[in-house]
Amino acid sequence: MIGGGGKTPALTSPSASEELLFGGELAYDVFDKHDGAFLKLGLWQMARQFPKLIAIGVRLAHMADPGRLRTVGLAELGRGITQALGLVAVNGVLGHLLAGGSTNERLQAALPALTVVAVTALAGSLLRSASTAAAGTLEPKVQRVATERYLALVHRVELSAIEDDEFHRLLDGARFGADSARRMIGYCTSALNSLISLVAAAGVLAVLHPVLLPLLVLMTVPSAWGSLTVSKQRYISFHAFVQHHRASHLLAQMLIQQEAAAEVRVHEVGGFLLTHYRSMSQTSEREQTRLARNAARTGLVSDAGGGAATLLTYGALGLLLWSGSMDLAVAGTAVLAIRTGSSSLESMVGQVTELYGESLFVADYERLCTEAAVRAIPSGGENLPEQLDEVRFENVTFTYPASKGESPGPTLRDVSLTFPMGKIIALVGENGSGKSTLIKLLSGLYLPDEGKGTIWWNTVDAARADRAQIFSRVALMSQAFYQWPFTFRVNVGIGRPGQPIDDDAVRTAAADSGADTVLAKLPHGLRTLLARGYRRGHQISGGQWQRVGIARARYRQGEILIVDEPTSALDAVAEQRAFDQIQALAATGQTVVLITHRLHSVRHADLIHVLKDGQVAESGTFDELMHPDTGNGTFRKPYLLQSHAYGLPAQRDTDAAAPETA
Ligand SMILES: Nc1ncnc2c1ncn2[C@@H]1O[C@H](COP(=O)(O)OP(=O)(O)OP(=O)(O)O)[C@@H](O)[C@H]1O
């Protein structure tokens, strides 16, 4: 039972598909997180939380369009007042109609009140249309403002936050939060309207007989309890299953996405994925069935309570009539007021329940915005030196943030090395030795573990420096460089996104990186869209993309050009050309940090750092590393292996000293 208690929902145990594909259960225990704490609250506390949640939505609406928000509020207030006046006028009409005299006289006496009924109905309808028009304009604006706000915050968070699955859970919730903020407007206006007409009916009832008022409230308590309980259960279930939903969606996507299309067909992966998609969906369906059963049970209990309260109310009314404490005209108005009041209450409870459900997602959204602000890359800090001589790692240790239930060891341990400016510095080492991680630290994407080493930009500590300045000094062509589904021009020009794209500079960068030959074959030149699946879309190969990636990094004109595996997908000619160009760049004073597994490509580097298991195994020039007296073999041995395998020179072209063939 989840209703008012704080227990975890009875989640279905992990399916065989979850075990096989994802290595275990994907559901979350929402109560092991501090942010689920308010879900442990009972109805009364929930009611007290409610204004705070509404305030979040209203604040967003105010940010989006204060004028329209005012219009909606005033129009709804006006509608409530017209309804109250209408009800009072109906009381007048009934009073006159049930009084003594001829039908004609009674009708004539009732005429002014009847006119008030008609005028209030007309005014109510005009106000409703004003509210509908304003709310219709306000809603999409609220969604845009809410979405823009969280995207603006999220794109500035530290990389470690983006890689954190808890942060992703918040992100999933927040995406719904922006939609919920939009829907809240509609529910808010309806709830406000119901509240005002309820107050009107309650006011009339209180005047007619004080005992009727608490009875009216009593009639609604059971359905309020039922609706809020069901809404809370749905919310808890959503959070518990958010990762599960994401994974099912992923499976469905794999069946249709272009990247997997060939393997899906040739390896006949389609049936496999579909089976697991079905199994995962069935787990979700079981959860939906559980929710539906709970909702049905809750509904029965609340209906029984509501029925008893209604019986009590009409019984009380009958008693008042029978005992002569109320006359027939007043009883008629009372029945009308009870019906209006209870239907307003009913609708208000419905709207408030929906509003409550939506507001929980908006609260998630707020939590994400707060968390994103906390985890944002700090702005400001010390200025970097104008004239940079070197970036130096001093005893740097770095550990990736822990995934849930895991405590990873450091990926980089006690790393000390330098990147002198104006040189080619190569980073080599086995798979997983920490090269890409190291360049993420060099680029300012991560900082060393607290108190465990420093990255010096001359004499400025990167941890205290203005990170935006670090980013602006670096041009990065990482292994996972992004293939933007935009035109060739934008794919290169996005290297300097703050400025208008300069076509000549795009062509020069393309020529510098070998992407000019790619460009020459494109059907619409710079305007060619590099994305299949769109109109005019054109597909280029992996190696061609790599050249475009290098062109982008080149176009950026960063002081330090980092190229991670620039030639892994290039053919031999293109590879040679890429390295010639890197050398030519270095000759112009450009600092190049080069990561590669093709060791013969680093022969001309000014400095080579060799990593092994997250530590620096050796550093030096090619000659130093190759010489048995100065190198420890970490570089020399794999180099010689590669040179034998590919028939490449076992030494620098100009070398006279024959290295040891270990
Ligand atoms: N985002 C991450 N979160 C957690 N661990 C990571 C992350 N990225 C890399 N690692 C881990 O850090 C270690 C070093 O990875 P890294 O990518 O830096 O190696 P690399 O030397 O560049 O390898 P390769 O030559 O295969 O590209 C690996 O054990 C990897 O699992």
TrEMBL record:
UniProt subcellular location: Cell membrane
PROSITE patterns: ABC_TM1F (PS50929), ABC_TRANSPORTER_2 (PS50893)
Domain ABC transmembrane type-1: 80-357
Keywords: ATP-binding, Membrane, Nucleotide-binding, Transmembrane, Transmembrane helix
A GO term, aspect molecular function: ATP binding
Superkingdom field: Bacteria
Annotated Gene Ontology cellular component terms: plasma membrane
Membrane-spanning segments: 184-205
Residues in ABC transporter domain copies: 391-638
Membrane topology listed for this record: Multi-pass membrane protein
InterPro entries according to UniProt: AAA+_ATPase, ABC1_TM_dom, ABC1_TM_sf, ABC_transporter-like_ATP-bd, P-loop_NTPase, Type_1_exporter
Keyword Nucleotide-binding assigned: yes
Protein name: ABC transporter
